[in-house]
Give the backbone structure.
Amino acid sequence: MAEVIRAEQLTKSYGQNRGIVDVDFSVETGEVFGFLGPNGAGKTTTIRLVLDLIRPTSGRLSVFGLDSRRDSVAIRRRLGYLPGDLRLYERMTGRELLEFFAHLRSARGKGDELARRLDLDLDRRVKELSRGNRQKIGLVQAFMHDPDLLVLDEPTSGLDPLVQETFYELVAEATGRGGTVFLSSHVLSEVQHVADRVGLIREGRLDLVDTVENLRARSFTHVEATFAEPPPRDAFAGVPGVNELDRHGDVVRLSLEGEIDPLLKTLARFHVRALDVHEADLEDVFMALYRGAGADAP
Amino acid sequence: MLRNVALKSLRDVRRGFLWWSLGLAGFVALIVSVYPTVHSNPALKRLAEDYPRALQAFIAFGGQVDYASAAGFLGIELFSLMVPLLFLVAAIATGAGTIAGEEERGTLEMLLANPVSRARVVLEKSLALAIEIAGLGLVLWLALEIGALTVGMDVSAGHLAAATLAAVLLAIAYGAIAVLVGAASGRRSLTIGVTAALGVAAYLVNGLAPLVHALEGPQKLSPFYYYAAGDPLRHGLAPGHLAVLLAIAVAATALAPWLFSRRDLST
């Protein structure tokens, strides 16, 4: 499958703490790639590199097989972009703004249709619009030319749940046409039901890239036990497949991979008041991965 | 008006342009209306001739201090200071807004997400700036010509046009410098400060040169010298001098896309 975005050892340094270091990933044609990480992790930096708004310190970045710097105009011709910090011309109406951008692309686009679907009034000036409505203009201008690649930085921020649903439809339609979507978020739940693959970026480093499916498979069982009195610190240390996540007083939370029997035998030695066993969701998996990655960091 | 970056930039300044035009026309009308009084008052003529030499150097626009002729009067009252000042303020404000202003407001990021090169954005916006200033020049020339005809000033439309063109090219040169500084720095207030400081310095150097021997060399580096020295109100077009102003504008405009394309857009 052809690669739409390919980053090799992509590095952008700004001085002390920001930026990204040796980021490697590729986004393939037709997929939705979710770029996940806490705020300030380097998501926006990576996206701005793709747009050629900023330039890499080292490493390589190609989009549609073209060089991100040299062929930027050709790349942007096929790309729709929604910035994370959306700033629109305040004194223009939505309609004027879309008309201007349409002229810059020498294509009419389907702004009116998208505005109708998002229930957006195009005749009001941007400065009169709420944050959610501005975000809708941002979405319309990104989607209206049916771009081959959509780069969306925190696209659902400020949108109410109903509009978010429309947004997910738009993403599905885009990939249905063969388009590719690269979107970022700091909340996994926003991404997990649209993304095919996710990349986890933390403190400028891409920790992990995997399919949502595989991440689900990494899933573990969550065990929360309430004891009559706290068991010894090392009570579960030797139990196969078990990891103690945290404890608050009498309550101990454990993760479990594999059979539950060894854990049950261990638990039976103590006075257990309550036991809750459930399948961890993706958010739990990520939190565990975050913690793991955090432990490796200096 | 939304067909391209240049037209959109002109559209952005349309309201400001209207106010500038009204102000400019009103100011010209005010100055011209006192001409008959000054012209027929011998005491005022002598007063001007008795000004200290330092002041004369500043107020004379190219030629001698001379309140008696229409050319001398307009030179002292309008073209020596107020016209270049107003035109430079307008040009530097637009020039600083071109890249730096839009970058600070954050709208440049959206603009550059479209398939337009940074060079094209700079060049189209520079073209819009030149058109805006030329438009102000047209307003100034029309106001002067109407005023001159009304009060019966003895100055030709061609000479008024030549002086106005000099002011237009001077302002476009400083506007282009503002675009250049903004394209390189991305910071609006810095751009205004640097460009205005360059303008004031050049004005002072040109004005003081007749008094301070050491400034005679540097005077030739001052754009204000090429603006005024040809004395266009009396002698008409000074093509050589105007060519220097044009060259400054062209050089700054050529350098701006290059510097802008080399750097990161600020957040």
